[in-house]
Design goal:
Length: about 90
């Protein structure tokens, strides 16, 4: 248990940051899921919209420090790779 005022404040700050980070990570997972659903449905205009949205959310999370920049690069790479597989299969 935190004994000093500054330690108590740090606990409060950490809870707030954890909530915010979890929200952002959830948005990342949701946007990737939406992209994959669009890919499976072969809805070309929805694929592009979902891809742009997912990339935007991933980049923003990386710039804010919620996820590491290499994690962001890996996630984006996998999305582009999936899109390329779809384009070559068509």
């Amino acid at each position: 248990m935190a004994n000093t005022a500054s330690a108590r404040k740090r606990v409060r700050q950490q809870k707030k940051r954890a909530l915010r980070n979890n929200k952002v990570k959830s948005q990342i997972r949701y946007s990737i899921k939406k992209f994959m659903e669009a890919v499976n449905a072969a809805d070309s205009e929805n694929i592009q919209t979902c891809l742009r949205n997912a990339i935007k959310i991933i980049d923003k999370a990386a710039s804010k420090g919620v996820i590491h920049k290499n994690t962001a690069a890996r996630k984006k790479s996998s999305l582009y790779k999936r899109l390329a597989q779809l384009n070559t299969a068509s």
